[in-house]
Amino acid sequence: MISLYTAPTPNGWKASVALEELGLPYQVHAIDLLSGAQRAPDYLAINPNGRIPAIVDHDADDFAVFESGAILIYLAEKTGQLMPSDAKGRSRLLQWLMFQMGGIGPMMGQANVFHRYFPEKIQVVIDRYQGESGRLFGVLDRHLADHEWLAGDYSIADIANWCWVRTHKWSGVNIEPFEHLQRWVAAIAARPAAQAGIKVPFDLEAMMAASRSGAETFARGGQTLVNMGGSKD
Prior knowledge:
Helix content is about 60%, strand content about 10%. The protein contains eleven helices and four strands; from the N terminus they run E-H-E-H-E-E-H-H-H-H-H-H-H-H-H. A four-stranded mixed sheet has the order 2-1-3-4, with helices on one face. A hairpin with a 5-residue loop joins strand 3 (about 55) and strand 4. The model has no long low-confidence stretch (mean pLDDT about 95).
C-alpha cells in the first residue's frame, strides 16, 4: 500500500494519475495548503521541502519519496511500467520529463501567479510567462507531429506534461494553434486512469464548474498563498 499526500494541483495529479495507470493500491491524504498542513512536523518528516505531492511506500519499509518527478520515476521503476528498460529509451523519457520539470511547470506556474493570483496586473510579466509557455507548447506540438507519445510508448513523461498542459486555460495560454498537441491532450484525457487521477484528492473541476463562487474561492486561495510569499504552497 502507498500513502499519497497531495492537493488538487498539476504536480499532485502527476502522482495520482500514475498510481491509477499502474493499478497500485493507495490511500489518499489530502493536504490543506491554506491551513499550512504541509508545514506540520509529521509531514516535514516525509517531505522536508513542505510541498506536495509526497508518497510513503509501506511495502518498502515505509520509504518516503518527495518531488513529483522523483515520485514518477520511483513508481515506474518499482513496477517496470511506464518507462522503457533500455538506456536510450530511458534517456529519451527522462529528457521529456525534465522538459516538464524545468520548463512547462515553472513557466505555467508563473503564468498562473501573475495572470490569476498576483494582486497587481503587470502585463509585461504576464506576457513573458504566457509567451514562454506558448513557446514550450510549440516544442511539444512539433515533436508530437511525428510521435504518438513523447518518448516511445505512453509513459510518465506524457503524464507529467499532460497534467500541466491540460490546465492551459487557467494560465491564459491558448492551444488552438497546436493541432498535434490538442490531439495528444485529448488522447490522454480519454484514458480512464487519467480521468480518475485528476479527481484526487477531490474533483476540483466539478467544484469550480458548479458555481462561479467555486472558481473565485479557488483563485482567492491561490492569491493568499502568493501573498504569503509561497510559505504555504
